[in-house]
Amino acid sequence: SCASYLYSSVLVVCFSLGLKFLTVGQPKSARCDDVESLRKRKCDEKNIENPRGNIDINTNKPVTIRNSNTGKLKPEQITQIQPQKVTLTLRSGEAQTFDLKFRRAEDYPIDLYYLMDLSFSMKDDLENVKNLGTDLMREMQAITSDFRIGFGSFVEKTVMPYISTTPARLINPCTGNQNCTSPFSYKNVLKLTNKGDEFNRLVSQQQISGNLDSPEGGFDAIMQVAVCEEQIGWRNVTRLLVFSTDAGFHFAGDGKLGGIVLPNDGKCHLENNMYTMSHYYDYPSIAHLVQKLSDHNIQTIFAVTEEFQPVYKELKNLIPKSAVGTLSSNSSNVIKLIIDAYNSLSSEVILENGRLPEGVSITYKSICKNGVEGTGENGRKCSNISLGDEVTFKISVEAQKCPSHDKPEVITIKPLGFTEEVEVVLKFICDCECAAFGEKNSKDCTNGHGTLECGACKCNEGRIGGQCECSKDEVRTEDLDANCRKDNGTDICSNNGDCVCGTCECKKRENPAEVYSGQYCECDNFNCDRSNNKLCGGHGQCVCRKCVCDANYTGSACDCSMDSSTCLAKNGQICNGRGICDCGICKCTNPKFQGPTCEICPTCPGVCTEHKDCVQCRAFKEGEKKDTCEQDCSYFDLIKVNDRDKLPQPTDQSFPLTHCKERDANDCWFYYTYAIRNGTKEVYVVESLECPAGPDIIPIVAGVVAGIVLIGLALLLIWKLLMIIHDRREFAKFEKEKMNAKWDASENPIYKSAVTTVINPKYEGK
């Protein structure tokens, strides 16, 4: 069969007769190769079969473009996606790509179903929703002239512990003097209609109910709204579901609290517009809801209070084509919320595809508004699409293998939230066309013992061999195997093939480019020597485990180049005259030289140092070699120039040139260049030495004297400053002691007054 050859998108089949095309030992599978290889092996062009995939556009109705002359259209007359049906013929490994256009139609019909939580906490919200029908109809006229609205309500499962099951509470679940209706799970109050006043009338008749726990049974209601298309009245238009609540939600598994363990079956159970199986089936899971909403093309708007925004935003991330709006405490902003959410949802298109067959993959590339491109997951969607905008998606489908059956596969691709879809029919190329024209009982298959199919014999039952020349019943395996052993060895077909009818058929390797060949499968084209991790160095062919090199290459791995251009030095010499060119690489004869062209000598003195003494003795009659100058330094031509500007410059030369600057014993500099031109060594030297000028004594002496004087003055100033500081400190100390001195006021003990008082003895005081 040719089927196995078609698993690669690059391999083709040569269906020339195998006896004429295949070499000794090659299996039938060797007919399969890339086109160029088959041509080199002399396969006639007309015998090469190379089936390719293709794309057929079966239905290609253009997208609807509205203008002033276009009247009102029915939903089925509006097209937003193009094409509608495509047939892809796939060959394994070869992707087929087609363009899908999406245009957001103007005045596209809308069905909106308002699903409201009627638990007691939503009492004030119900009052504001009673006039929603006519008000919303009026606002939606700016978006579409074909708008329908419906209404449904939900509370909770009618079992404990979600509600109280006492008889009184089943009649009126509210406390106090509140008049509430009996609890229920979900009720379809109004089928979708274009009569806004009918919406107002029926909603006005609704009453609040009640339950015990905070989370509500909204998921049960969403499931019924999605799957009960006939009862709700959904059309094949834009479907919006507004879910209004001020509480959380129960989901799969929570039903166990009420003894409900059966998973939700995802089917419609409405009788007289009431959900009758809430006590029997558990709440649906989020994944189950996502599947049903997607299957029925419903876009969800969660209108919830500020408190539960984080919960429903996380839920939005799990439900494609959904939005979350903040509901005021009494639902007064519900109309603005719905319009804003609708605009957000309708401005984004996201493609999804149905289940893919095994081995088939699909990739998307989006070309959105203003030419913005997206790939990967972003290739599935475009945002900020306005009415009348057209975007394109490039969709590539690729098969890696053929299916187990011959029937075509069908997948669908559609934008989320839209009813239109593209039907993609997949057909697979799993056999060669030539297989249908096989010649039964062909004389080329040994007297008609097989069918000549695609250039090879497909043997009848009981026959074997490349041309069906052997019968299984007439030959012994031992006799046949002897013909498949090389040099009477023990290995059959060198362990690289099978002995079929006394002839070796070599094994096929995973890599089609690697083949065994030879009478005993002793040869192959992949076990030759390698260089730089390439077979035969990339410069030859591997023939029976030996490299056959291309021109200008030799060696066991064709790694030796005979081209000597890589060994040419800048001076035009091979390896600078210091080595030989071997396999395009210089091998230096003198071990002290190295480099690509033997130009580097790490241990050699520099050119300038090497020739310094000879240049000095010949140009200035000085230096260490002035006595042996004629014998040692006659190997170059000396040319003297007046100044340094006259020396040859590197940019003027087509040969290596070195500029040198050296100093003699008298500290004088001399300049020269050294070059080899046409095998002649040339030295250009500046004839005058550049010696440093002698010192000027007077400025030196004056400078020394001035320095000494300045240093002396600086020392005197420092000494004077220190003395002033010292005197001021001593004076301050004296003043302080003077202020603190205390004087004793007593009389001097050795003091004697100069006045002597003598009392008259005769004086009697009279």
UniProtKB/TrEMBL annotation:
<keyword id="KW-0245">EGF-like domain</keyword>
<dbReference type="GO" id="GO:0045202">
    <property type="term" value="C:synapse"/>
</dbReference>
<feature type="disulfide bond">
    <location>
        <begin position="228"/>
        <end position="268"/>
    </location>
</feature>
<dbReference type="InterPro" id="IPR032695">
    <property type="entry name" value="Integrin_dom_sf"/>
</dbReference>
<keyword id="KW-0130">Cell adhesion</keyword>
<dbReference type="Pfam" id="PF23105">
    <property type="entry name" value="EGF_integrin"/>
</dbReference>
<dbReference type="InterPro" id="IPR002369">
    <property type="entry name" value="Integrin_bsu_VWA"/>
</dbReference>
<feature type="disulfide bond">
    <location>
        <begin position="588"/>
        <end position="598"/>
    </location>
</feature>
<dbReference type="GO" id="GO:0001968">
    <property type="term" value="F:fibronectin binding"/>
</dbReference>
<dbReference type="InterPro" id="IPR036465">
    <property type="entry name" value="vWFA_dom_sf"/>
</dbReference>
<feature type="disulfide bond">
    <location>
        <begin position="523"/>
        <end position="528"/>
    </location>
</feature>
<dbReference type="InterPro" id="IPR057073">
    <property type="entry name" value="EGF_integrin_2"/>
</dbReference>
<dbReference type="GO" id="GO:0042470">
    <property type="term" value="C:melanosome"/>
</dbReference>
<feature type="disulfide bond">
    <location>
        <begin position="583"/>
        <end position="629"/>
    </location>
</feature>
<keyword id="KW-1015">Disulfide bond</keyword>
<dbReference type="Pfam" id="PF00362">
    <property type="entry name" value="Integrin_beta"/>
</dbReference>
<dbReference type="GO" id="GO:0005925">
    <property type="term" value="C:focal adhesion"/>
</dbReference>
<feature type="disulfide bond">
    <location>
        <begin position="501"/>
        <end position="536"/>
    </location>
</feature>
<dbReference type="Pfam" id="PF07974">
    <property type="entry name" value="EGF_2"/>
</dbReference>
<keyword id="KW-0472">Membrane</keyword>
<dbReference type="InterPro" id="IPR014836">
    <property type="entry name" value="Integrin_bsu_cyt_dom"/>
</dbReference>
<dbReference type="GO" id="GO:0007229">
    <property type="term" value="P:integrin-mediated signaling pathway"/>
</dbReference>
<feature type="domain" description="Integrin beta subunit cytoplasmic">
    <location>
        <begin position="720"/>
        <end position="766"/>
    </location>
</feature>
<keyword id="KW-0965">Cell junction</keyword>
<feature type="disulfide bond">
    <location>
        <begin position="459"/>
        <end position="468"/>
    </location>
</feature>
<feature type="disulfide bond">
    <location>
        <begin position="454"/>
        <end position="493"/>
    </location>
</feature>
<feature type="transmembrane region" description="Helical">
    <location>
        <begin position="697"/>
        <end position="719"/>
    </location>
</feature>
<dbReference type="Pfam" id="PF08725">
    <property type="entry name" value="Integrin_b_cyt"/>
</dbReference>
<dbReference type="GO" id="GO:0046872">
    <property type="term" value="F:metal ion binding"/>
</dbReference>
<dbReference type="Pfam" id="PF07965">
    <property type="entry name" value="Integrin_B_tail"/>
</dbReference>
<dbReference type="GO" id="GO:0098639">
    <property type="term" value="F:collagen binding involved in cell-matrix adhesion"/>
</dbReference>
<dbReference type="GO" id="GO:0008305">
    <property type="term" value="C:integrin complex"/>
</dbReference>
<dbReference type="GO" id="GO:0016477">
    <property type="term" value="P:cell migration"/>
</dbReference>
<dbReference type="InterPro" id="IPR040622">
    <property type="entry name" value="EGF_integrin_1"/>
</dbReference>
<feature type="disulfide bond">
    <location>
        <begin position="601"/>
        <end position="604"/>
    </location>
</feature>
<dbReference type="GO" id="GO:0019960">
    <property type="term" value="F:C-X3-C chemokine binding"/>
</dbReference>
<dbReference type="InterPro" id="IPR012896">
    <property type="entry name" value="Integrin_bsu_tail"/>
</dbReference>
<feature type="disulfide bond">
    <location>
        <begin position="633"/>
        <end position="668"/>
    </location>
</feature>
<feature type="disulfide bond">
    <location>
        <begin position="560"/>
        <end position="567"/>
    </location>
</feature>
<feature type="disulfide bond">
    <location>
        <begin position="445"/>
        <end position="457"/>
    </location>
</feature>
<keyword id="KW-0812">Transmembrane</keyword>
<dbReference type="InterPro" id="IPR013111">
    <property type="entry name" value="EGF_extracell"/>
</dbReference>
